[in-house]
Every structure is written in structure tokens, then in C-alpha cells.
Amino acid sequence: MNGIYVHLPYCERKCRYCDFYSQTQFSGLPVFLESLTKEINLKGQQPLFNSAQYDSVFIGGGTPSLLPPIDLQNLFDNLHKTFFIKNSAEITIECNPNSVSLEQLVQYKETGINRISFGVQSFDDSELQFLGRIHNANEAVKACELANKTDFDNISIDLIWGIPGQSPESWLKTLNTAIELGVKHISAYCLIYEENTPMYQDWKSGKILRMDEDAEAELYDILCKVMSDNGFEHYEISNFAKPGYKCLHNLMYWKGGDYLGFGPSAHSFVEGKRSWNYSDLNKYIELLKKDELPVEAEETLTDTQILNEMIMLGFRSEGLEIRKINEKFGLDIMVQLYPLITNLKNRGLLIADKDRLCLTDSGYILCQEITLQFVMQTEKFIVLG
User: Fold this and answer.
1) Under a CB-based contact definition with an 8 Å cutoff, are residues 74 and 39 in contact?
2) What is the Cα–Cα distance from 119 to 348, expressed in whole angstroms?
3) Which secondary-structure segment (H or E) carries 195?
4) What is the largest CA-CA distance in the chain?
5) So what's the pLDDT on residue 355?
6) Mean pLDDT of each 10-residue bin along the chain, 385 residues long
7) Which contacts of 375-382 are long-range, i.e. CB under 8 A and separated by 24 or more positions?
8) How far apart are alpha carbons 150 and 108 in whole angstroms?
9) CA distances from 119 to 2, 88, 106, 343 (A)
10) What are phi and psi for residue 348, nearest 5 degrees?
11) What contacts 34, CB < 8 A, 6 or more positions away?
12) Residue 196, φ and ψ in degrees, nearest 5
């Protein structure tokens, strides 16, 4: 699988917890769009990129729904002209609930967008205010209803749990509201206190008290149960989908597919080489004015790094593909890691069959710890082998 990611680095206001690269000054938008077009054209001249077929396009940010529809149409026209995007491709745009209209959603459909991802985070106004969101719960509901009205069948929403003051009751209300709105995909993330964000500073200074791990675990248990009871498949540690609605772009990342990134801070990964653009809009524009790609750095992954990422991404999503790992790295993990696998199975953390090793819902909570154990064990056998 191959994907394209485009980062549009503009937000009406930065949320208190967000560390994604964005800015709130829109005066340079036309110049940025010219630079973005040039980056697409420059990469499109490379046979390695323009010979591939792409299964997904994801427009993220920032707040892509702030982009005027005509500019969005021009962006897609350029992508389709430059790269082979399959007719069946999943085309996603991220939207803030208060920045979309019925007319805008109709135009999205005409552009070829077939999947909407709303940054809802909560259907509780006090929790939204704490997070620094600029929409309220009612606007979030209306945005989903508008998307349904315009026949967007594939609607996803992002939610956050572990918010200080969030109760099991408020979390359950948020989940039930999402289900009643008929969304097909839910990405639910535990609140992370990223450095260099206002929320991190408030936490470190003692202005806010972080939810304890036991309370977070209770909310995660509620999440998993409600999703299961309502027919959602738990296909990644933080992602749930109705049958047939798993995010292809996400799966492309987790299965180690190749992807091209465009825009400041965007990452690319092609044939084992990872590169990333400058997280600086001025630097991004300056280099493209000189017909230079705005790549800050790149690295070619070693076999050990590739194996470690396969383990990490596999355990986060649909499991480790046993045959694929064994053949690629000369291992026999069911034999070599038998004691570890048996221990995790007996603790109810792992499900194993002849094809795949998958974490249970309880195992997902300990994903980082289990991943580390597998990484240490497999590296030992690679060295000895």
C-alpha cells in the first residue's frame, strides 16, 4: 500500500495540548500554496515516486477545512496530474467542527473527498474548554449531522480520554453521542502532555492535576466495551471501526507501506528511507523558491530498526505477521520466543495462532512494555544468528 499525506499548517487557534506544527497567521497562505505546488511537482519528477500507485490521500494539519474550496480543488488537481491515485483510493480531510458548512461539504464531495475526519475530542463543553478547543459540543453534533446530510458515508471522529475532571459518566455520554450520530470510525487517544505546550507547562507548574493511571485504565476499559457492544472492530490500540470502515491510510502506516509527505514538518518513507521536511514555514518557502526540496534530514533504516518498527506497529494494530517476520529476518519467533509468548498468553495479554500474534484489549494497555520485551528478545537472536 502507498499513501500521500499533505500537511496544511494553519489553525484559527492552537489547542493547549497540541504539538503539531501549525501557525495562526494566514497572510502568507497564497505563497505557501505556491510552494506546496512546487514541492509536489519536484517530487513528481522522480521516477521512484511517480511510478507508484497510491491507495490513500490524507489532508491533515493544522485545520485543512480552513482552506478555501477553490484552493483545495487546485491542490487535488495537481496531485492527480502528478501521481497515479487509484479510483478506489480513500481520500480524507481533517475538519474542525466549527469550520465546515453544508456548501463546503458538498464541494468536498465534488472534489473527490470520500472520508471526513472531525476533531471532536469530546461532546462535553467543560472538557472542550479545558482542552482549548474553539468549538462546543453542539457544533460538533451539527457538523456530523451535516456530513450525514451530504451523504458522507465514511465519517470518523477523534476523541480524547484521560482529561482531568473527566468522569466515567461524561466519557460514556461522549461515546454514546458518537454512536447515535452514526459515525463509522472513532480514534480515541489518551491525553498526552507534550513538552512545549501550554498544558504541559500548567501540569509541571502544578496548575492542573493529571489523571492517575488507574482512572485512565477505567476509561479505556469503558471505551473498549462500548465499542465492542456497538459493533466496532478494535483494529489498533486507539482506533475502532465498523466492519468495512478501517482507515486505509492508517493501515498503510501500520503495515509499513510507503508514503509521500508534503508541507512543512511532513514525513516521507519510501523503500526503507525516511525523510522529513523542516518544521518551519519560512524555511520551507525559502528552499522551494530556489527549487530545492525542503528536506531537513533523512535516514536509511537498518534491518534491526525495520524489525523493531514492525514489532511496534504490529502490536499497536492487527498483530505481528509471523511468516513475514520469520522470512525477512531469518527467525522462528514461535520457537525462539516461546517462553515469552506463553507467559503473555497465560496472562490474557496475547492471542497467538499460526499466522499472527495479537494483543488483547488488556494487552494494549501494556503495549509499550510488551513491545520492548519482544524487541530485546528478537535483537538477541539476530545477533546470535
Assistant:
1) no
2) 33
3) none
4) 62
5) 87
6) 95 87 82 96 91 95 90 96 96 94 94 96 96 95 96 96 96 98 97 92 93 94 96 94 96 92 96 94 96 96 90 91 90 92 95 90 91 89 57
7) 375/308, 375/311, 375/312, 377/336, 377/337, 377/340, 378/307, 378/311, 378/329, 378/331, 378/333, 378/336, 378/337, 379/304, 379/307, 379/308, 381/331, 381/336, 382/303, 382/304, 382/307, 382/329, 382/330, 382/331
8) 10
9) 24, 25, 19, 39
10) 75, 25
11) none
12) 65, 25
Strand 350-352 and strand 273-277: pairing? unpaired
Strands (E), the chain: 2-8, 53-61, 84-95, 115-121, 155-161, 185-190, 233-236, 239-241, 258-262, 267-270, 273-277, 295-300, 320-321, 350-352, 356-359
pLDDT at 385: 41
How far is 256 from 253, CA to CA, in rounded Å? 5
Rounded Cα gap, residues 5 and 302, in angstroms: 24
pLDDT at 383: 54
Q: What is the CA radius of gyration of the chain?
A: 21
* SS3 (DSSP) at 141: helix
User: In a 10 Å sphere around its CB, with 0-12 CB exposed, 13-18 middle and 19+ buried, how is residue 361 labelled?
Assistant: middle
- Residue written as cell 493501515? 251
pLDDT of amino acid 77? 96
For each of the domains in the chain, give its residue range(s) and CATH number, in order of start: 2-253 (3.20.20.70), 319-384 (no CATH)
C-alpha cell at 291: 527549487
CA angle 102, 106, 247 (to 5 degrees): 105
DSSP β-ladder status, 185-190 and 233-236: unpaired
- As a whole number of angstroms, the distance between CA 349 and CA 339 comes to 14
Decide: 310 and 255 in contact? Cβ < 8 Å: no
d(CA 350, CA 315) in angstroms, rounded, equals: 10
For the entire predicted model, the pTM comes to: 0.92
**pLDDT of amino acid 380:** 78
What is the per-residue pLDDT for 189?
95
| Per-residue model confidence (pLDDT) at position 26 | 72
